[in-house]
Amino acid sequence: MELFSIILLLVLIVSLSGVVVKMLPIQIPLPLMQILLGCILAAFNVYVEFDPKLFLVLFIPPLLFADGRKTSVKDFIYNGREIVGLALVLVVISIIALGYILHWILPNVELAAGLALAAVLSPTDAVALGGIVGKGRIEKEKMEIIEGEALMNDASGLVSLNFAIAIAVGDAVFNIFDVSVQFFIVAIGGLAIGVLFTWLYARILRKINQLTHNDPAIQIVLLFLLPFAAYIIAEECHCSGILAAVSAGMTVNHSGMMRNAPLTARLQSDSTWSMLTFVFNGFVFVLLGIQLPSIFNNTFVENQIDTSIEVWQLCLIVLFVFAVLMGTRFAWLWAMKHMPTMPFGTKRPLAFRAYSTRDLLISTFAGVRGAITLAGVLSIPMTISGRYQLVFIATGIILISLIAAVIILPILLRGSVILDNSEQKNEILSVKGHMAEEAIVSLEKMQNNLLQETAEDRVDQEIIHEVGSRVIGSLRRRTGLKDLEQKSLEAENLERRMRLVAIGAERTALLQMKVRNEVSEEVFEHLNTDLDIYEKMISGDA
Protein backbone atom coordinates (compact mmCIF):
# COMPACT_ATOMS: atom_id res chain seq x y z
CA MET A 1 0.00 0.00 0.00
CA GLU A 2 2.87 2.37 0.81
CA LEU A 3 4.49 1.79 -2.60
CA PHE A 4 1.15 2.40 -4.34
CA SER A 5 0.76 5.71 -2.46
CA ILE A 6 4.27 6.77 -3.46
CA ILE A 7 3.55 5.98 -7.12
CA LEU A 8 0.37 8.08 -7.02
CA LEU A 9 2.33 10.89 -5.34
CA LEU A 10 5.01 10.75 -8.05
CA VAL A 11 2.38 10.88 -10.80
CA LEU A 12 0.84 13.93 -9.11
CA ILE A 13 4.24 15.63 -8.77
CA VAL A 14 5.09 14.96 -12.44
CA SER A 15 1.71 16.37 -13.50
CA LEU A 16 2.07 19.49 -11.35
CA SER A 17 5.69 20.12 -12.40
CA GLY A 18 4.55 21.51 -15.75
CA VAL A 19 2.10 23.82 -14.00
CA VAL A 20 4.73 25.04 -11.52
CA VAL A 21 7.17 25.86 -14.35
CA LYS A 22 4.59 28.03 -16.11
CA MET A 23 3.58 29.84 -12.89
CA LEU A 24 7.10 30.89 -11.86
CA PRO A 25 8.24 34.42 -12.77
CA ILE A 26 11.60 33.05 -13.93
CA GLN A 27 11.96 30.36 -16.58
CA ILE A 28 13.25 27.07 -15.17
CA PRO A 29 13.56 24.08 -17.53
CA LEU A 30 11.13 21.28 -16.75
CA PRO A 31 13.82 18.60 -16.09
CA LEU A 32 15.53 20.81 -13.49
CA MET A 33 12.20 21.59 -11.83
CA GLN A 34 11.37 17.87 -11.64
CA ILE A 35 14.79 17.14 -10.10
CA LEU A 36 14.19 19.93 -7.56
CA LEU A 37 10.75 18.56 -6.69
CA GLY A 38 12.33 15.13 -6.23
CA CYS A 39 14.83 16.64 -3.76
CA ILE A 40 11.94 18.27 -1.87
CA LEU A 41 10.17 14.90 -1.64
CA ALA A 42 13.37 13.35 -0.28
CA ALA A 43 13.50 16.10 2.36
CA PHE A 44 10.06 14.89 3.54
CA ASN A 45 11.41 11.32 3.83
CA VAL A 46 9.84 10.13 0.59
CA TYR A 47 12.30 7.58 -0.74
CA VAL A 48 12.14 5.05 -3.58
CA GLU A 49 14.72 2.27 -3.67
CA PHE A 50 16.60 2.68 -6.94
CA ASP A 51 17.14 -0.63 -8.72
CA PRO A 52 19.25 0.18 -11.81
CA LYS A 53 18.29 -2.98 -13.70
CA LEU A 54 14.58 -2.45 -13.02
CA PHE A 55 14.95 1.23 -13.94
CA LEU A 56 16.55 0.37 -17.28
CA VAL A 57 13.91 -2.18 -18.26
CA LEU A 58 10.93 -0.17 -16.95
CA PHE A 59 11.61 3.34 -18.24
CA ILE A 60 14.27 3.30 -20.94
CA PRO A 61 12.72 0.92 -23.57
CA PRO A 62 9.39 2.79 -23.96
CA LEU A 63 11.12 6.20 -24.00
CA LEU A 64 13.68 5.16 -26.62
CA PHE A 65 10.94 3.36 -28.57
CA ALA A 66 8.87 6.56 -28.63
CA ASP A 67 11.91 8.56 -29.78
CA GLY A 68 12.60 5.94 -32.43
CA ARG A 69 9.03 6.26 -33.75
CA LYS A 70 9.51 10.00 -34.18
CA THR A 71 12.87 9.59 -35.91
CA SER A 72 12.94 9.74 -39.69
CA VAL A 73 14.88 6.73 -40.96
CA LYS A 74 15.76 8.69 -44.10
CA ASP A 75 17.24 11.58 -42.10
CA PHE A 76 18.92 9.15 -39.71
CA ILE A 77 20.67 7.36 -42.57
CA TYR A 78 21.54 10.67 -44.23
CA ASN A 79 23.22 11.84 -41.01
CA GLY A 80 24.66 8.36 -40.37
CA ARG A 81 28.35 9.38 -40.55
CA GLU A 82 27.84 12.31 -38.18
CA ILE A 83 25.85 10.15 -35.73
CA VAL A 84 28.42 7.33 -35.81
CA GLY A 85 31.19 9.88 -35.31
CA LEU A 86 29.54 11.17 -32.13
CA ALA A 87 27.77 8.08 -30.79
CA LEU A 88 30.56 5.57 -31.40
CA VAL A 89 33.94 7.15 -32.17
CA LEU A 90 33.57 9.99 -29.65
CA VAL A 91 32.33 7.52 -27.03
CA VAL A 92 35.40 5.33 -27.50
CA ILE A 93 37.75 8.33 -27.40
CA SER A 94 36.06 9.70 -24.26
CA ILE A 95 36.12 6.33 -22.48
CA ILE A 96 39.82 5.74 -23.14
CA ALA A 97 40.96 9.31 -22.39
CA LEU A 98 38.76 9.86 -19.35
CA GLY A 99 39.27 6.33 -18.00
CA TYR A 100 43.04 6.76 -17.79
CA ILE A 101 42.67 10.27 -16.33
CA LEU A 102 40.31 9.01 -13.60
CA HIS A 103 42.66 6.13 -12.81
CA TRP A 104 45.48 8.66 -12.50
CA ILE A 105 43.74 11.22 -10.25
CA LEU A 106 41.68 8.83 -8.05
CA PRO A 107 44.04 6.85 -5.79
CA ASN A 108 41.68 3.96 -4.95
CA VAL A 109 40.13 3.54 -8.41
CA GLU A 110 41.51 0.87 -10.73
CA LEU A 111 41.72 1.40 -14.50
CA ALA A 112 38.71 -0.82 -15.26
CA ALA A 113 36.58 1.11 -12.74
CA GLY A 114 37.73 4.39 -14.28
CA LEU A 115 36.75 3.09 -17.71
CA ALA A 116 33.36 2.07 -16.28
CA LEU A 117 32.72 5.59 -15.01
CA ALA A 118 33.85 7.06 -18.33
CA ALA A 119 31.41 4.72 -20.08
CA VAL A 120 28.40 5.88 -18.04
CA LEU A 121 29.37 9.51 -18.61
CA SER A 122 29.26 9.01 -22.40
CA PRO A 123 25.47 8.86 -23.05
CA THR A 124 23.77 12.20 -23.71
CA ASP A 125 20.15 13.06 -22.95
CA ALA A 126 18.22 14.72 -25.79
CA VAL A 127 15.01 14.82 -23.68
CA ALA A 128 16.68 16.97 -21.03
CA LEU A 129 18.13 19.16 -23.78
CA GLY A 130 14.69 19.71 -25.31
CA GLY A 131 13.34 20.76 -21.90
CA ILE A 132 16.20 23.24 -21.50
CA VAL A 133 16.32 25.04 -24.86
CA GLY A 134 12.69 24.61 -25.91
CA LYS A 135 11.29 23.45 -29.22
CA GLY A 136 12.82 24.87 -32.36
CA ARG A 137 15.65 26.88 -30.81
CA ILE A 138 18.28 24.60 -32.34
CA GLU A 139 18.12 24.21 -36.12
CA LYS A 140 16.33 21.10 -37.36
CA GLU A 141 19.41 19.63 -39.08
CA LYS A 142 21.60 20.07 -35.99
CA MET A 143 18.89 18.72 -33.65
CA GLU A 144 18.48 15.61 -35.82
CA ILE A 145 22.17 14.82 -35.34
CA ILE A 146 22.01 15.47 -31.57
CA GLU A 147 18.89 13.31 -31.18
CA GLY A 148 20.36 10.53 -33.34
CA GLU A 149 23.51 10.62 -31.22
CA ALA A 150 21.46 10.39 -28.01
CA LEU A 151 19.55 7.38 -29.37
CA MET A 152 22.70 5.46 -30.24
CA ASN A 153 25.21 6.42 -27.54
CA ASP A 154 22.93 5.12 -24.79
CA ALA A 155 23.69 1.69 -26.18
CA SER A 156 27.39 2.24 -26.88
CA GLY A 157 27.95 3.67 -23.39
CA LEU A 158 26.08 0.92 -21.54
CA VAL A 159 27.60 -1.88 -23.61
CA SER A 160 31.05 -0.43 -22.85
CA LEU A 161 30.05 -0.24 -19.17
CA ASN A 162 29.20 -3.96 -19.10
CA PHE A 163 32.58 -4.83 -20.57
CA ALA A 164 34.38 -2.55 -18.09
CA ILE A 165 32.50 -4.06 -15.11
CA ALA A 166 33.27 -7.60 -16.30
CA ILE A 167 36.97 -6.70 -16.44
CA ALA A 168 36.85 -4.93 -13.05
CA VAL A 169 35.33 -7.91 -11.24
CA GLY A 170 37.65 -10.38 -12.97
CA ASP A 171 35.08 -12.03 -15.24
CA ALA A 172 36.94 -10.95 -18.39
CA VAL A 173 40.41 -9.95 -19.52
CA PHE A 174 40.96 -6.74 -21.44
CA ASN A 175 41.78 -7.40 -25.09
CA ILE A 176 41.08 -4.60 -27.53
CA PHE A 177 40.35 -6.96 -30.46
CA ASP A 178 38.01 -9.25 -28.50
CA VAL A 179 36.19 -6.32 -26.92
CA SER A 180 35.72 -4.64 -30.33
CA VAL A 181 34.34 -7.81 -31.92
CA GLN A 182 31.97 -8.45 -29.01
CA PHE A 183 30.87 -4.81 -29.06
CA PHE A 184 29.83 -4.97 -32.72
CA ILE A 185 28.14 -8.34 -32.25
CA VAL A 186 26.12 -6.97 -29.33
CA ALA A 187 25.21 -3.77 -31.20
CA ILE A 188 24.33 -5.32 -34.58
CA GLY A 189 22.51 -8.16 -32.84
CA GLY A 190 20.36 -5.69 -30.90
CA LEU A 191 19.47 -3.74 -34.04
CA ALA A 192 18.64 -6.92 -35.96
CA ILE A 193 16.49 -8.36 -33.16
CA GLY A 194 14.52 -5.12 -32.90
CA VAL A 195 13.81 -5.04 -36.65
CA LEU A 196 12.97 -8.74 -37.06
CA PHE A 197 10.88 -8.98 -33.91
CA THR A 198 8.88 -5.85 -34.82
CA TRP A 199 8.22 -7.21 -38.32
CA LEU A 200 6.95 -10.49 -36.84
CA TYR A 201 5.02 -8.61 -34.13
CA ALA A 202 3.28 -6.48 -36.79
CA ARG A 203 2.10 -9.58 -38.67
CA ILE A 204 0.78 -11.18 -35.48
CA LEU A 205 -0.95 -7.93 -34.49
CA ARG A 206 -2.74 -7.77 -37.85
CA LYS A 207 -4.14 -11.27 -37.26
CA ILE A 208 -5.25 -10.30 -33.75
CA ASN A 209 -6.92 -7.15 -35.10
CA GLN A 210 -8.88 -9.22 -37.60
CA LEU A 211 -10.11 -11.48 -34.80
CA THR A 212 -11.00 -8.55 -32.51
CA HIS A 213 -12.45 -6.35 -35.28
CA ASN A 214 -9.70 -3.71 -34.81
CA ASP A 215 -10.40 -3.05 -31.14
CA PRO A 216 -8.30 0.11 -30.38
CA ALA A 217 -7.69 -0.82 -26.73
CA ILE A 218 -6.14 -4.18 -27.63
CA GLN A 219 -3.99 -2.61 -30.36
CA ILE A 220 -2.63 0.11 -28.06
CA VAL A 221 -1.84 -2.29 -25.20
CA LEU A 222 -0.03 -4.72 -27.52
CA LEU A 223 1.92 -1.84 -29.08
CA PHE A 224 2.90 -0.64 -25.60
CA LEU A 225 4.31 -4.09 -24.80
CA LEU A 226 6.45 -4.15 -27.96
CA PRO A 227 9.50 -2.17 -26.67
CA PHE A 228 9.65 -4.22 -23.46
CA ALA A 229 9.47 -7.49 -25.41
CA ALA A 230 12.17 -6.39 -27.86
CA TYR A 231 14.42 -5.22 -25.00
CA ILE A 232 14.04 -8.41 -22.95
CA ILE A 233 14.50 -10.76 -25.92
CA ALA A 234 17.66 -8.92 -27.01
CA GLU A 235 19.09 -8.99 -23.50
CA GLU A 236 18.34 -12.72 -23.21
CA CYS A 237 20.27 -13.19 -26.45
CA HIS A 238 23.17 -11.21 -24.90
CA CYS A 239 22.65 -8.33 -27.33
CA SER A 240 21.84 -4.65 -26.76
CA GLY A 241 18.26 -4.31 -25.51
CA ILE A 242 18.47 -0.54 -25.86
CA LEU A 243 19.33 -0.73 -29.57
CA ALA A 244 16.57 -3.32 -29.98
CA ALA A 245 14.04 -0.86 -28.51
CA VAL A 246 15.34 1.95 -30.75
CA SER A 247 15.23 -0.13 -33.94
CA ALA A 248 11.77 -1.45 -32.97
CA GLY A 249 10.47 2.11 -32.75
CA MET A 250 12.00 3.05 -36.10
CA THR A 251 10.61 -0.13 -37.72
CA VAL A 252 7.03 0.41 -36.51
CA ASN A 253 6.47 3.31 -38.91
CA HIS A 254 7.72 1.26 -41.87
CA SER A 255 5.83 -1.90 -40.95
CA GLY A 256 2.45 -0.23 -41.52
CA MET A 257 1.35 -1.44 -38.08
CA MET A 258 -0.37 1.81 -37.16
CA ARG A 259 -0.63 3.39 -40.62
CA ASN A 260 -3.17 0.75 -41.66
CA ALA A 261 -5.04 0.88 -38.36
CA PRO A 262 -8.48 2.55 -38.12
CA LEU A 263 -8.54 6.29 -37.44
CA THR A 264 -9.86 5.85 -33.90
CA ALA A 265 -6.99 3.52 -33.01
CA ARG A 266 -4.39 5.92 -34.46
CA LEU A 267 -5.79 8.91 -32.56
CA GLN A 268 -6.04 7.02 -29.29
CA SER A 269 -2.55 5.58 -29.76
CA ASP A 270 -1.00 9.01 -30.31
CA SER A 271 -2.75 10.43 -27.24
CA THR A 272 -1.77 7.45 -25.09
CA TRP A 273 1.90 7.55 -26.09
CA SER A 274 2.04 11.31 -25.59
CA MET A 275 0.74 10.88 -22.02
CA LEU A 276 3.01 7.93 -21.26
CA THR A 277 6.20 9.62 -22.49
CA PHE A 278 5.40 12.74 -20.45
CA VAL A 279 4.82 10.69 -17.28
CA PHE A 280 7.81 8.40 -17.82
CA ASN A 281 10.17 11.28 -18.56
CA GLY A 282 8.92 13.07 -15.47
CA PHE A 283 9.37 9.93 -13.37
CA VAL A 284 12.99 9.67 -14.51
CA PHE A 285 13.93 13.16 -13.36
CA VAL A 286 11.86 13.10 -10.14
CA LEU A 287 13.51 9.79 -9.19
CA LEU A 288 16.87 11.35 -9.95
CA GLY A 289 16.04 14.19 -7.56
CA ILE A 290 14.93 11.75 -4.87
CA GLN A 291 18.27 9.92 -5.08
CA LEU A 292 20.48 13.03 -4.83
CA PRO A 293 20.29 13.64 -1.04
CA SER A 294 21.03 9.98 -0.24
CA ILE A 295 23.93 9.94 -2.73
CA PHE A 296 25.51 13.03 -1.19
CA ASN A 297 24.89 11.72 2.34
CA ASN A 298 26.50 8.36 1.50
CA THR A 299 29.47 10.20 0.01
CA PHE A 300 30.12 12.10 3.25
CA VAL A 301 29.67 8.96 5.36
CA GLU A 302 32.01 6.87 3.19
CA ASN A 303 34.54 9.69 3.03
CA GLN A 304 34.81 9.77 6.82
CA ILE A 305 36.60 6.40 6.74
CA ASP A 306 38.48 7.05 3.48
CA THR A 307 41.68 8.95 4.20
CA SER A 308 42.90 8.91 0.59
CA ILE A 309 40.77 11.83 -0.60
CA GLU A 310 38.70 14.73 0.75
CA VAL A 311 35.22 15.80 -0.30
CA TRP A 312 36.45 19.15 -1.59
CA GLN A 313 38.93 17.31 -3.78
CA LEU A 314 36.08 15.21 -5.19
CA CYS A 315 34.21 18.44 -6.01
CA LEU A 316 37.25 19.78 -7.88
CA ILE A 317 37.54 16.46 -9.72
CA VAL A 318 33.90 16.79 -10.82
CA LEU A 319 34.66 20.19 -12.34
CA PHE A 320 37.83 18.85 -13.94
CA VAL A 321 36.05 15.80 -15.42
CA PHE A 322 33.30 18.02 -16.81
CA ALA A 323 35.92 20.24 -18.43
CA VAL A 324 37.61 17.17 -19.94
CA LEU A 325 34.28 15.88 -21.29
CA MET A 326 33.37 19.21 -22.88
CA GLY A 327 36.90 19.76 -24.15
CA THR A 328 37.06 16.30 -25.73
CA ARG A 329 33.65 16.78 -27.32
CA PHE A 330 34.55 20.20 -28.73
CA ALA A 331 37.92 18.95 -30.02
CA TRP A 332 36.31 15.99 -31.80
CA LEU A 333 33.60 18.21 -33.33
CA TRP A 334 36.33 20.59 -34.53
CA ALA A 335 38.28 17.64 -35.96
CA MET A 336 35.21 16.39 -37.86
CA LYS A 337 34.62 19.92 -39.15
CA HIS A 338 38.07 19.88 -40.75
CA MET A 339 37.95 16.23 -41.81
CA PRO A 340 38.49 15.69 -45.58
CA THR A 341 35.52 14.55 -47.68
CA MET A 342 36.71 10.96 -48.00
CA PRO A 343 35.26 8.78 -45.22
CA PHE A 344 32.77 6.00 -45.96
CA GLY A 345 33.02 6.38 -49.73
CA THR A 346 30.88 9.48 -50.22
CA LYS A 347 31.86 12.85 -51.62
CA ARG A 348 29.35 14.72 -49.47
CA PRO A 349 31.25 16.58 -46.73
CA LEU A 350 30.24 16.08 -43.12
CA ALA A 351 27.54 18.43 -41.89
CA PHE A 352 30.02 19.81 -39.36
CA ARG A 353 31.96 21.40 -42.23
CA ALA A 354 29.37 24.20 -42.32
CA TYR A 355 29.37 24.72 -38.53
CA SER A 356 30.61 28.00 -37.14
CA THR A 357 32.49 28.19 -33.84
CA ARG A 358 29.19 29.06 -32.16
CA ASP A 359 27.55 26.00 -33.70
CA LEU A 360 30.39 23.82 -32.39
CA LEU A 361 29.94 25.28 -28.90
CA ILE A 362 26.15 24.73 -29.07
CA SER A 363 26.67 21.08 -30.05
CA THR A 364 29.27 20.74 -27.30
CA PHE A 365 27.09 21.98 -24.43
CA ALA A 366 24.03 20.24 -25.93
CA GLY A 367 25.60 16.98 -24.74
CA VAL A 368 23.92 17.05 -21.33
CA ARG A 369 23.91 13.95 -19.15
CA GLY A 370 20.80 12.47 -17.57
CA ALA A 371 19.09 9.40 -16.16
CA ILE A 372 21.05 6.79 -18.16
CA THR A 373 24.25 8.04 -16.53
CA LEU A 374 22.77 7.70 -13.03
CA ALA A 375 21.33 4.24 -13.71
CA GLY A 376 24.63 3.11 -15.19
CA VAL A 377 26.83 4.29 -12.33
CA LEU A 378 24.50 2.83 -9.68
CA SER A 379 24.73 -0.55 -11.45
CA ILE A 380 28.47 -0.69 -10.72
CA PRO A 381 28.95 -3.48 -8.13
CA MET A 382 29.44 -2.52 -4.49
CA THR A 383 32.60 -4.63 -4.38
CA ILE A 384 34.53 -2.27 -6.67
CA SER A 385 36.94 -0.09 -4.73
CA GLY A 386 36.07 3.60 -4.64
CA ARG A 387 32.52 3.06 -5.90
CA TYR A 388 31.12 5.94 -3.81
CA GLN A 389 33.58 8.28 -5.52
CA LEU A 390 32.38 7.15 -8.95
CA VAL A 391 28.71 7.66 -7.98
CA PHE A 392 29.43 11.14 -6.59
CA ILE A 393 31.37 12.20 -9.70
CA ALA A 394 28.66 10.92 -12.08
CA THR A 395 25.92 12.68 -10.08
CA GLY A 396 27.92 15.90 -10.06
CA ILE A 397 28.46 15.71 -13.83
CA ILE A 398 24.70 15.28 -14.40
CA LEU A 399 23.90 18.39 -12.36
CA ILE A 400 26.71 20.52 -13.78
CA SER A 401 25.93 19.57 -17.39
CA LEU A 402 22.27 20.53 -16.88
CA ILE A 403 23.10 23.79 -15.12
CA ALA A 404 25.81 24.69 -17.67
CA ALA A 405 23.36 24.05 -20.51
CA VAL A 406 20.72 26.22 -18.79
CA ILE A 407 23.18 29.12 -18.48
CA ILE A 408 25.33 28.82 -21.62
CA LEU A 409 22.96 27.58 -24.35
CA PRO A 410 20.50 30.53 -24.13
CA ILE A 411 23.50 32.87 -24.50
CA LEU A 412 24.80 30.98 -27.53
CA LEU A 413 21.30 30.79 -29.04
CA ARG A 414 20.56 34.46 -28.46
CA GLY A 415 19.29 36.06 -31.64
CA SER A 416 18.45 32.76 -33.34
CA VAL A 417 15.03 32.46 -34.95
CA ILE A 418 12.66 30.07 -33.20
CA LEU A 419 11.55 27.44 -35.71
CA ASP A 420 11.08 29.19 -39.03
CA ASN A 421 8.31 27.10 -40.58
CA SER A 422 8.03 28.99 -43.87
CA GLU A 423 9.90 26.36 -45.90
CA GLN A 424 7.90 23.52 -44.35
CA LYS A 425 4.62 25.38 -44.93
CA ASN A 426 5.49 25.91 -48.59
CA GLU A 427 6.23 22.20 -48.95
CA ILE A 428 2.94 21.30 -47.25
CA LEU A 429 0.98 23.59 -49.58
CA SER A 430 2.73 22.19 -52.66
CA VAL A 431 2.14 18.57 -51.66
CA LYS A 432 -1.50 19.25 -50.75
CA GLY A 433 -1.99 20.76 -54.21
CA HIS A 434 -0.58 17.67 -55.93
CA MET A 435 -2.69 15.38 -53.73
CA ALA A 436 -5.81 17.38 -54.60
CA GLU A 437 -5.09 17.13 -58.35
CA GLU A 438 -4.83 13.35 -58.13
CA ALA A 439 -8.01 13.22 -56.01
CA ILE A 440 -9.92 15.31 -58.58
CA VAL A 441 -8.95 12.92 -61.40
CA SER A 442 -10.12 9.95 -59.33
CA LEU A 443 -13.41 11.64 -58.33
CA GLU A 444 -14.19 12.67 -61.92
CA LYS A 445 -13.79 9.06 -63.02
CA MET A 446 -16.02 7.93 -60.16
CA GLN A 447 -18.62 10.57 -61.04
CA ASN A 448 -18.72 9.49 -64.71
CA ASN A 449 -19.10 5.84 -63.70
CA LEU A 450 -21.95 6.69 -61.33
CA LEU A 451 -23.70 8.76 -64.01
CA GLN A 452 -23.53 5.85 -66.45
CA GLU A 453 -24.86 3.41 -63.84
CA THR A 454 -27.71 5.69 -62.75
CA ALA A 455 -28.71 6.48 -66.36
CA GLU A 456 -29.79 2.87 -66.75
CA ASP A 457 -31.57 2.78 -63.37
CA ARG A 458 -33.22 6.19 -63.90
CA VAL A 459 -31.91 7.43 -60.55
CA ASP A 460 -31.86 11.20 -59.90
CA GLN A 461 -28.52 12.36 -61.29
CA GLU A 462 -28.76 15.82 -59.72
CA ILE A 463 -27.57 14.37 -56.39
CA ILE A 464 -24.42 13.03 -58.05
CA HIS A 465 -23.74 16.38 -59.76
CA GLU A 466 -24.40 18.32 -56.56
CA VAL A 467 -22.20 16.20 -54.28
CA GLY A 468 -19.49 15.80 -56.91
CA SER A 469 -19.35 19.53 -57.65
CA ARG A 470 -19.13 20.35 -53.95
CA VAL A 471 -16.28 17.91 -53.21
CA ILE A 472 -14.36 18.60 -56.42
CA GLY A 473 -14.84 22.36 -55.97
CA SER A 474 -13.30 22.14 -52.51
CA LEU A 475 -10.34 20.20 -53.92
CA ARG A 476 -9.88 22.66 -56.79
CA ARG A 477 -9.40 25.45 -54.26
CA ARG A 478 -6.67 23.38 -52.67
CA THR A 479 -4.82 23.02 -56.01
CA GLY A 480 -4.45 26.78 -55.97
CA LEU A 481 -2.39 26.41 -52.80
CA LYS A 482 0.38 24.95 -54.87
CA ASP A 483 0.99 28.41 -56.27
CA LEU A 484 0.36 29.99 -52.84
CA GLU A 485 -2.73 31.89 -54.02
CA GLN A 486 -3.95 33.91 -51.06
CA LYS A 487 -7.64 33.69 -51.93
CA SER A 488 -7.55 29.91 -52.09
CA LEU A 489 -5.89 29.76 -48.70
CA GLU A 490 -8.46 32.13 -47.22
CA ALA A 491 -11.31 30.06 -48.69
CA GLU A 492 -10.00 26.84 -47.13
CA ASN A 493 -9.42 28.50 -43.75
CA LEU A 494 -12.92 30.02 -43.85
CA GLU A 495 -14.46 26.65 -44.70
CA ARG A 496 -12.53 25.05 -41.82
CA ARG A 497 -13.75 27.74 -39.38
CA MET A 498 -17.37 27.31 -40.49
CA ARG A 499 -17.22 23.55 -40.14
CA LEU A 500 -15.71 23.87 -36.65
CA VAL A 501 -18.48 26.28 -35.65
CA ALA A 502 -21.04 23.79 -36.98
CA ILE A 503 -19.42 20.98 -35.00
CA GLY A 504 -19.53 23.12 -31.85
CA ALA A 505 -23.22 23.82 -32.40
CA GLU A 506 -23.94 20.12 -32.98
CA ARG A 507 -22.10 19.21 -29.79
CA THR A 508 -24.11 21.80 -27.82
CA ALA A 509 -27.37 20.48 -29.25
CA LEU A 510 -26.37 16.91 -28.40
CA LEU A 511 -25.50 17.93 -24.83
CA GLN A 512 -28.82 19.74 -24.41
CA MET A 513 -30.70 16.65 -25.61
CA LYS A 514 -28.79 14.59 -23.06
CA VAL A 515 -29.72 17.03 -20.28
CA ARG A 516 -33.39 16.77 -21.33
CA ASN A 517 -33.09 12.95 -21.37
CA GLU A 518 -33.95 12.89 -25.07
CA VAL A 519 -30.97 10.69 -25.93
CA SER A 520 -29.56 7.59 -24.28
CA GLU A 521 -26.08 7.56 -22.70
CA GLU A 522 -24.81 5.05 -25.28
CA VAL A 523 -25.99 7.13 -28.26
CA PHE A 524 -24.59 10.29 -26.68
CA GLU A 525 -21.13 8.75 -26.22
CA HIS A 526 -21.15 7.33 -29.74
CA LEU A 527 -22.13 10.61 -31.43
CA ASN A 528 -19.85 12.69 -29.21
CA THR A 529 -16.88 10.48 -30.16
CA ASP A 530 -17.78 10.90 -33.86
CA LEU A 531 -17.79 14.67 -33.40
CA ASP A 532 -14.40 14.57 -31.66
CA ILE A 533 -12.86 12.56 -34.50
CA TYR A 534 -14.45 14.80 -37.14
CA GLU A 535 -13.22 17.90 -35.32
CA LYS A 536 -9.67 16.53 -35.26
CA MET A 537 -9.85 15.80 -38.97
CA ILE A 538 -11.14 19.26 -39.80
CA SER A 539 -8.71 21.11 -37.53
CA GLY A 540 -5.76 19.28 -39.08
CA ASP A 541 -4.58 17.62 -35.82
CA ALA A 542 -5.29 14.06 -36.95
What does it look like?
By secondary structure, the protein is mostly helical. The chain has helices at 2-23, 30-43, 52-70, 73-78, 80-105, 111-120, 126-133, 140-168, 176-212, 216-236, 241-255, 263-304, 311-337, 357-365, 371-378, 387-412, 422-457, 462-479, 486-515, 521-539. Helix 1 (2-23) crosses helix 12 (263-304), helix 8 runs antiparallel to helix 11 (241-255) and helix 10 (216-236) packs antiparallel against helix 11. The chain is elongated and about 95 Å long. The mean pLDDT is 81.
Unreliable residue runs: none
Rg value: 28 Å
Q: What structural class should be given to the helix and strand makeup?
A: mainly alpha
Strand % is: under 5%
- Sketch the topology as an H/E string, one letter per element: HHHHHHHHHHHHHHHHHHHH
**Main β sheet profile:** none
Report the average pLDDT across residues.
81
Task: Describe the structure in brief.
This protein has 542 residues and is mainly α.
Write the layout of secondary structure elements.
Elements: H1 2-23, H2 30-43, H3 52-70, H4 73-78, H5 80-105, H6 111-120, H7 126-133, H8 140-168, H9 176-212, H10 216-236, H11 241-255, H12 263-304, H13 311-337, H14 357-365, H15 371-378, H16 387-412, H17 422-457, H18 462-479, H19 486-515, H20 521-539
What keyword list fits this structure?
542 residues, mainly alpha, 78% helix, elongated
